[in-house]
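User: Hello! I'm new to structural biology and keep hearing that structure can be predicted from sequence alone. Could you demonstrate with DUF3955 domain-containing protein? Please show me the input and the output so I can see what each looks like.

Assistant: Of course. The first part below is the input, the amino acid sequence of DUF3955 domain-containing protein. The second part is the output, the predicted structure written as tokens.
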Amino acid sequence: MKKKYLFIGIPLLLTIACMISFQLIGSEVAPDGTLVEPFFLLPIGYLFLAISIVSAILIGITSFMKTVKQ
């Protein structure tokens, strides 16, 4: 696997891990009526997804430009 694809793969794997762990941990209502859930995993997961998409677009553009240049 080329090193440039790690910039796509690692954030994508972290996105999947965040979303799965959010579902596995679950949420519950505390005795005082407040909702207890690992909400922090959602924005972090979407941030990693955005990083993965932007990396894929940039790597795709640079690869396309290299093939056109040759």
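User: So the tokens describe the shape?

Assistant: Right, they're a compact way of writing down the 3D structure. Reading them back into a model, for example: The chain has a mean pLDDT of 92.
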